């Protein structure tokens, strides 16, 4: 009779649990990213129009800047 035994600590014992933890990790990362976007929006909305103009952002661009942090909206005007 062949009875498969899974040894604690073997790759076969750990593999089924990894996808669940990966999903939780991605959800956690998405939550942290969302919180950061909210904080950026709040901080930028608290600035005056003159302060926003100093850093090169119009009030209408705040949502875009908060959502696309890796993209510099000034790059179209001032190419590197």
Which short descriptors sum up this protein?
YjiS-like domain-containing protein; 4 helices; 80 residues; YjiS-like; 0% strand; elongated
What does this structure look like?
Pfam families: YjiS-like. InterPro entries: YjiS-like. This is YjiS-like domain-containing protein. Residues 28-63 form the YjiS-like domain. This protein has 80 residues and is mainly α. The protein has a domain at 31-80. The chain is 55% helix and 0% strand. The chain is built from four helices and no strands. The chain has helices at residues 11-14, 18-45, 49-54, 62-67.
The secondary-structure element order is HHHH
Strand content: under 5%
- The number of distinct β-strands equals 0
Number of helices: 4
Q: Give the helix proportion (percent range).
A: 55-70%
**pLDDT < 50 stretches:** none
Topology record:
Layout: H1 11-14, H2 18-45, H3 49-54, H4 62-67
Please provide a brief summary of the model.
Pfam families: YjiS-like. This protein has a domain at 31-80. Helix content is 55%, strand content 0%.
């Amino acid at each position: 009779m062949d009875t498969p035994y899974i040894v604690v600590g073997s790759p076969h014992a750990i593999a089924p649990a990894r996808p669940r933890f990966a999903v939780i990790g991605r959800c956690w990362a998405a939550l942290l990213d969302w919180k950061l976007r909210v904080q950026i929006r709040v901080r930028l909305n608290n600035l005056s129009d003159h302060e926003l103009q100093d850093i090169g952002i119009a009030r209408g661009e705040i949502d875009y800047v908060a959502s696309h942090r890796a993209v510099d909206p000034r790059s179209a005007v001032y190419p590197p």
